[in-house]
């Protein structure tokens, strides 16, 4: 468990402060910084975690009625530093039970070192690949978030109809899935829209695609949206 002096958090509103740099087993470097008073985990071309400034999910959580969840069991595939449970707990007053799946042991080390002790919500953190986890687990979840990237690419096994079917098999009846897809460039937007139409919405016919300025978030059931 590591805490950061207040003066560093104050200074980080002016200048980003790098705390650690690590080499992963996946051919790229990660940088852990304090930025705008929050822990930020960066790959070369992508932000993996940034507490409540992880805007793509934050903007979607603002539009969700999570009181409709059938229970509290939650699965985060691609845990990172835990921005999703942090936001839900601290900014949206959600008390859920989390299982986090993260393939990179170095990211898990950083999560335990800097973030996990701040959470009051129960958390089980598992080192595993998401596609294997959803294939073999016998657990069921009420809320599943898919946030899986290697740098700025979604691994090929994740962008398949089979993977989405396996995610659905882990979901309790009337549960909710959120899937994060990059949409910064025109090519990403086209592939994201195609994946939504040809895989995600096939598995979840009541799904909705939300454009959150640089990302698409696929919502498996639009009845959870407050504007529906």
Task: List descriptors.
4-stranded antiparallel beta sheet, 7-stranded mixed beta sheet, globular, 7 helices, 11 strands, single chain, alpha/beta, 29% strand, 228 residues
Structure description:
- The mean pLDDT is 92.
- By secondary structure, the chain is an alpha/beta fold.
- A seven-stranded mixed sheet has the order 7-6-5-8-9-11-10.
- Helix 6 crosses helix 7 (186-203).
- The N and C termini lie far apart (42 Å).
- The radius of gyration is 17 Å and the shape is globular.
- Strand 6, helix 4 (105-114) and strand 7 (123-127) form a beta-alpha-beta unit.
- The chain is 29% helix and 29% strand.
Set out the fold topology:
Layout: H1 6-11, E1 17-23, E2 29-35, E3 38-42, E4 47-49, H2 55-61, E5 73-77, H3 83-90, E6 97-102, H4 105-114, E7 123-127, H5 130-136, E8 141-146, H6 161-169, E9 171-182, H7 186-203, E10 208-211, E11 215-219
Parallel strand pairs: 5-6, 5-8, 6-7, 8-9
Antiparallel strand pairs: 1-2, 2-3, 3-4, 9-11, 10-11
β content, as a range? 25-35%
Strand order of the largest sheet: 7-6-5-8-9-11-10
Order of helices and strands: HEEEEHEHEHEHEHEHEE
Radius of gyration: 17 Å
Query: How confident is the prediction overall: mean pLDDT?
Result: 92
Number of helices: 7
Structural class: alpha/beta
Low-confidence stretches: none
């Amino acid at each position: 468990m590591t805490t950061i002096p207040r003066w560093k958090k104050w200074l980080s509103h002016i200048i980003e402060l790098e705390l650690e740099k690590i080499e992963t087993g996946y051919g790229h470097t990660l940088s852990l910084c304090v930025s705008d008073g929050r822990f930020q985990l960066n790959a070369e071309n992508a932000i993996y975690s940034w507490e409540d400034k992880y805007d793509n999910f934050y903007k979607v959580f603002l539009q969700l009625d999570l009181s409709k969840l059938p229970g509290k069991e939650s699965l985060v595939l691609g845990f990172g530093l835990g921005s999703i449970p942090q936001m839900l707990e601290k900014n949206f007053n959600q008390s859920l039970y989390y299982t986090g799946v993260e393939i990179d042991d170095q990211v898990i080390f950083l999560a335990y070192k800097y973030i996990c002790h701040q959470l009051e919500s129960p958390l089980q953190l598992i080192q595993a690949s998401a596609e294997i986890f959803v294939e073999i687990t016998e657990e069921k979840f009420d809320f599943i978030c898919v946030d899986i990237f290697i740098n700025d690419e979604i691994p090929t096994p994740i962008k398949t109809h089979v993977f989405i079917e396996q995610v659905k098999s882990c979901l309790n009846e009337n549960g909710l899935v959120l899937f994060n897809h990059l949409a910064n460039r025109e090519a990403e937007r086209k592939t994201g829209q195609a994946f939504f139409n040809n895989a995600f919405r096939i598995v979840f016919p009541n799904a909705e695609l939300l454009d959150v300025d640089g990302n698409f978030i696929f919502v498996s059931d639009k009845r959870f949206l407050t504007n529906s």
